[in-house]
Amino acid sequence: MTTASNPSVPLDGGPARARKPALSLFWRTFFLLALLLLGSVIAWTQTLLQMEFEPRALQTADQIASVVNLSRAAVMHSDAIARVSLFKTMKDQEHLTIRLREPKDVFEVFPATDLNRHVVAQLQSRLGADTIVASSVNQVQGLWVGFSIDKDRYWLQTERNRFDQPTRQTWTVWLLTAAVLSLAGAAGIARLINRPLKDLSQAASRVHEGDFEASTLDETVSTQEIRAVNIGFNRMTRKLAQIEQDRTVMLAGISHDLRTPLARLRLEAEMSVPDAQAREAMVGDIAQLDAIIGKFLDYARPGDMRLVPVSLNHMVETCLEPLRKRSDLDFKLALQDGLMVLADPVELQRALVNLLENAARYGKSDGTELARVDISARYSNDKVLLRLRDHGNGVPPEQLKHLTTPFFRGDSARSAANSTGLGLAIVEQTISRMGGAFDLSNANGGGLCANIVLRRATGSAVAA
Length: 464
Known about the structure:
The protein is of the alpha+beta class. It has helices at residues 25-76, 80-94, 114-127, 168-208, 224-272, 276-299, 312-320, 345-362, 397-400, 423-433, and strands at 97-100, 107-109, 132-137, 140-149, 152-158, 308-311, 329-335, 340-343, 371-380, 383-390, 437-442, 448-455. Residues 1-18 and 412-417 have low confidence and may be disordered.
């Protein structure tokens, strides 16, 4: 078997293609709310900073100017002997240092931020144009203000933090706190919005699986719109349950009302028609009618399934056993040992039989009466990949996606009178009900490939 022709089977049964990862409604709502709230927090923070800027600069300048003016007055009204004691007292008690300003002093002004420029401008307007505000003098850090008394020039040194308003670090802490609270609020709102939709999604999944009883939604919720949706969904679920029940009864009636007369006709034909050839033709026609009815019933069968661990190796052998005696069929197996799948044994056997019948009918290459079928299967993580390939003429690419459509039959080679066009549709429906995927493709070397993905099972196989 040519391994190069193995197609990649998407788990959803559709054509293989790259898909963008889906973002859940919760996370989409959370991200949008978080973006909105964080933008609002940042905008309000910037607004408050701008509103605080002018008062903060004026207050800082007033405090510094008051200290300088008081220090200047104290220096002016004290003699040389008392001035030494005054300077020592101011340094010990008020942490203020006053000393003469020397021409050789090297100083650095504060960084040119808007706030610093504004404070310096305010100080110069209060203390004089020759006022200097520095961050260090002779590499000594602090808040240094240079002022003059008559012809003498002085430095006043104090601690920078005495006049600092809330720093950028403080604003950062408040901003992060507001951001965390905003994100927590966004998560709560997103969860509140997403919960009814999540309940609806889970209920819809249960309906898809045929569990109508467990899919009832709460009709007493406080939100008017959600309550209306839940009421409508419950009505729809009850209607679907009734339709499913009616369909089951109808199928039982069809099976009885059609197959019972067919059985009588077959018995009567076998007993009353003397011509052996005519009798064989009539019996064949009746058997064909019975098979067609069986196909219709299989396709319309209710979706309840009992998924249990099943040995795929044993299932394939069971399906092949009645076909091995046929001279027009040749099988080649390549199955990994001990393959276990989660499936309904009866439904899985029915799907495999449909695929084998399809391969036997259409898998004959031109000029031969022998249909060769390759069957391979292996594990792939938590899945089991099963592949059946015939060596027939394949299918035109434009018809591939229609082969699983009910009642669709392709070219003349695939439109025999005894075909209902339901075999592959039944396979797709059955595999989908078991949580798997089914895909059809043309093999590189010719022929049609049926690719099945089933869920891997653990534990011992359950007898069919």
